[in-house]
What does this fold into?
Amino acid sequence: MADVQILATGVSAAPLDYDVPAANAITPKACFAHYDGSGSAGAYLPALEIISDSGHTVTIAVPSSSVAAGGTADVSWFPWRRGVTVQQGGNAGPLGTLFAWYDFSDTSTIALDGSGKIQVIRDKTSNHHDLSQATASQRPSQTTVNGLNAGLFSHANQTWLDSATFSSVVNQPLTIAAVWSQTVVGGGSYYPGPCGRLLGGQGCQVWVNGPANNVVCGANGNGHIDTPTVAPFSQILTVSFHSAASSYIRVNGAQSLGTIASQGINGIRLGHTGTNTLPAEDDALNGVLCEAQYYIGQLTANQLVGVEAQLKAKWGTP
Amino acid sequence: MAGQPVDVSMPPDMAVPGGYTIRFTAIDPSTGGTVAGVVISNASIQAGIDLGVASTLDSGPFMFVPGPGA
It folds into this structure.
């Protein structure tokens, strides 16, 4: 392995592409660019994007705050720093403090059983909140979304993936960002994947109200926020659970504000909520989960749009 | 003219295979689309590379500068 410097020789309107020659592979150690936004009418996030040879975005790195309209910036990218510990401990993600992160496109984090079903998906943070399913018939299978690997969950087979109980409760505020699609089958209300496990009640949950065709978040069975009618269910979802009035649920950037009950979570279950108090709603997801990110606290406005922009670019959502 | 300094983290030890593209771009924080009117200059990538033939590394508007050991 040798060190090289690859330099742009001129000035280019964004985007500026460097195509890695087919015979080579490189490992970027640091990147830099000068951005001149004097000709732009709006704020922007300087971004470094890795695109596969099939045209899919593999990853994208953006700052936590945007450059104002007309602004210039000297932007440096470097490998992220780990080790930031806040509350229950966690990693400094690129746009917030993650305490759990499940990325079905990263097959290195997935362990399949002998039938090709997902037995384990590992938490990409260092918190080790790995999810698993011990019952073979209830393991989700795999599919592809935007050319990327994704988890396929079945209502009929009651599939889900579960963490062990956390050593300490993750209290509000907490934020979930997820990409999922869902088919409402059967009757009543059906639940998408990102949700909390029981904690003396119902934890923090997200579900689709089948008859009303909207998405709902709530905590401990008290107080909830409904989106307007949303269909089809193929969306970027961002939810902030906060007992204050600043809780929100967003679908593809459209935000609904409200107040929900104070309730932490002591585990994560993808694909199923599981509520003892509302057994009729104790049901499994019928659909696809692409990625779920769990953050400590509420994201700043710029972190929020950055997270959603990353997920949108990666998964090709509406 | 120097701009405001902005530091951004990126994944460590990220091998980028041949045929892939590294794109410097400007994203609209509301829509996720590319912002028109933003101009990029002095772009550079410091990287480790398994060298084949150095002359094959030129690509698009970029030029290749061998570093120590290259």
